[in-house]
């Protein structure tokens, strides 16, 4: 609401009117091309240096987030809803309309139209119609200075004060701009910063806000409506203000265009007769307003990632401001098809309003690019929604136990230590260990893990079938042989982050005694797990997860962020050997024919190409996990109750989790060339001959009785010796 004019402010206006009116009378006879020079040099003094914001506009613009196709808009971020467009992408009638409405002499003055200023001031002082008197160039100067984020709040406020000094400074800056820039450049800058009401800054935002179209497609009637709003945008806005007043103002602009000859009277009458047809389009702002369904959790991950990038500022606050005001174009790594499938599959298992959830993450091996972050939840702050990072972890989300999927880290540590895939062990139903334990799961005061299904798991096993059948006692034994600390270090090397304080303490201080680690008792997330398995799929190359393909600044330059950040953390041969064993759980065969049973046999039928993976069930089936991979994608899903770990999801859901992940993999590789895994060298295979089962011992027999001599014969013999 404008402040009432005080007697003092009216006095300043009268003084300014007198000053400028006298100036105009003194130079009215000068040619137009000398007028600007007179105003600057004679009246105001030379001025060579413009503020940086006027030389290089720092006006806030919204940033755009797109899917990896570069076309699917996910959302925008902004404090001020505006986006710059070049003049060539603005309809000619829009350019003509704004000149006719705000500055008919724009192409003839030198930045300050002193005749217009004096006329406006005299009209204002004498009680005539209120007139502005500012040229488009002067208005542009004012808009830049009042919105420059590098100026203080006091400096921005001073840019609109009704003072003689401010007006003279505005004239001076405008004149210098006219000396440095072409008229079209000034017009383009003005159209990109002017406020059109309803939260829309700049003609691109305004044409979308009111008509749902690009500014190049504006009609005469639409352009004149927008041009008319600039004088009083909040009052005239046909969405938030007075629609009738907007139409009256449109008529004024049409008359001005007719009077200046840029349109004919017939064109003006035809546009004036058009009904006001609006297509209000609200520009999404932030992750809670993502346009593409169910990408809010991915958007949230990207924002968290952004706030950690030094390229966007020294502090998180500066980086947040850069995202909301910097006008960046962000092509993310999200694949719309993979995301849609993952969301559909998560909701096939659990509905949106269920306490239990199935977060799913998909990662591209060799780049770390995140293709999907999906869950059966709505991202937001309303009832039944959440902003907790359920898929990636962070904040209050420490993660979920992933069960036997952690056996991969034991196998990798063993292979790296020189053991082979043929490493054999006669796995018992229960395995007494050296770790002290009490209660359930203990044997004589020692931790004594058991196989979940002794009939399928007990007996002599090598890495292939121990991994395929998920034999607990084999992997606990193997971890003891390798060293638990080596297994924990392997998991960390592949990107497993210990967010729970108790897990972090174990890893830092007691890793060598963390006996149950191989059974997946540490909390993790689908994203960490998918990326760890993606490292194996990429034959030992770990890549930091990244949510972007590219980030482009408003000037078209590419910001150096988001490129794959990768390093080798495993030898190719070790990764290939682990992959060969990981073919067993999913119903496929290793390169050496050693798979003889798996826990996720249906994956082979669903994916229909070379695939590997592992299931995992935590204690008493509190969570159920599956992670699978091909050379092109790794996908992990964990069924859990994020808010109540004691709420066990139950064993029967495992088959649904397996199918959900497998179908997501199938979508990710659809249309991609079929790629097989490379077999490991014989050095890591070892002697595949399994020991012959011991032959059964013969039935015990009674010893042969000693021969007895008949008594009569015995007496006869004795008599003869005698």
From TrEMBL:
GO MF terms, alphabetically ordered: penicillin binding; peptidoglycan glycosyltransferase activity; serine-type D-Ala-D-Ala carboxypeptidase activity
Signal sequence span is none
Q: Residue ranges of the Penicillin-binding protein transpeptidase domain?
A: 361-658
Taxonomic superkingdom: Bacteria
The record's catalysed reaction(s) read:
Preferential cleavage: (Ac)2-L-Lys-D-Ala-|-D-Ala. Also transpeptidation of peptidyl-alanyl moieties that are N-acyl substituents of D-alanine; [GlcNAc-(1->4)-Mur2Ac(oyl-L-Ala-gamma-D-Glu-L-Lys-D-Ala-D-Ala)](n)-di-trans,octa-cis-undecaprenyl diphosphate + beta-D-GlcNAc-(1->4)-Mur2Ac(oyl-L-Ala-gamma-D-Glu-L-Lys-D-Ala-D-Ala)-di-trans,octa-cis-undecaprenyl diphosphate = [GlcNAc-(1->4)-Mur2Ac(oyl-L-Ala-gamma-D-Glu-L-Lys-D-Ala-D-Ala)](n+1)-di-trans,octa-cis-undecaprenyl diphosphate + di-trans,octa-cis-undecaprenyl diphosphate + H(+)
Which Pfam families does this one have?
Transgly, Transpeptidase
Biased composition annotated in UniProt, kind: Pro residues? 694-710
Known Gene3D superfamilies for this protein?
Biosynthetic peptidoglycan transglycosylase-like, DD-peptidase/beta-lactamase superfamily
Where's the Glycosyl transferase family domain?
Answer: 73-257
GO annotation terms (biological process):
cell wall organization; peptidoglycan biosynthetic process; proteolysis; regulation of cell shape
Q: PANTHER family from the entry?
A: BINDING PROTEIN TRANSPEPTIDASE, PUTATIVE-RELATED, PEPTIDOGLYCAN GLYCOSYLTRANSFERASE
How is this protein named in the record?
Answer: Membrane carboxypeptidase (Penicillin-binding protein)
